[in-house]
Amino acid sequence: MNEHRRDTVPLPQRARLRWELAIVLALSFGYAGARAIITILERLAQDTALENQTATIHRPLSSQQYFDLAYQLLGIIGGLAPVALVVFLLWRTQRPHLGDLGLGARRDAGTRPADPSSFAPMRSGRGWPWLSETGNGFVLAAVIGIPGLGFYLFAKWIGINTTVVPTTLDAFWWTVPVLILQALRAALSEELIVVAYLFDRLKRLGVGPWATIIASALLRGSYHLYQGFGGFIGNVVMGVVFGWAYQRWGRALPLIVAHLLLDIVSFVGYPLALALWPSLFG
User: Fold this and answer.
1) CB 3 within 8 A of CB 111
2) Distance (Å, rounded) from C-alpha 15 to C-alpha 263?
């Protein structure tokens, strides 16, 4: 019996686990995915072609500077509430406390599991090799980011995507820090819920590794549908790559770092790119 099957829960407990999974997704990205599906249907019903529509990610929430700041910070805190929930649900009483989320020190030495289809992380010694995991995050960001920009331009050119505007926030002293915090919120929530938590729960329900990777990728694509079909396809591909990396490494930090870098470049770099190459965003 392989590592994956040993981690499944007994049949009487699976109904409760399914309800837990449904509740977590309803409070986070399952809800976001359903809303994005409605949004894309509304966009398709409009007379304006999809490529001539705009999807804005971060927008002002008040015309008054400090009320806008308060709303932005409150939104970031609220967005992290589902992350706190999955941390609570998967918290271990013994160290590493966040081991089921792919975070913290590795407890034992050894090599990768004999069964390569399992979810068990590779262990190469004690401690938390955060530096090497951060480096892996930079590599993942490059693998996804460079082709991703090209695919976005292609998707917009063939008419299956909107013009994605990362931010329309006014230029205040707090704008860049808030955008970085927004990037951190997105990285933590997506990678810890859509990958680490979902992988753990589906594994315990007896779902196979590749079925889990595909389910995670489709979920990631679903809540980006508001951007258009290009956003859906691009994020499904990203989800497959991230899911494969998590299955192979069993570590969430590389995914968080990669996502954080991609979003910081997108959110903070957008005004500069708009000034230098306005034709790409028109």
Assistant:
1) no
2) 36
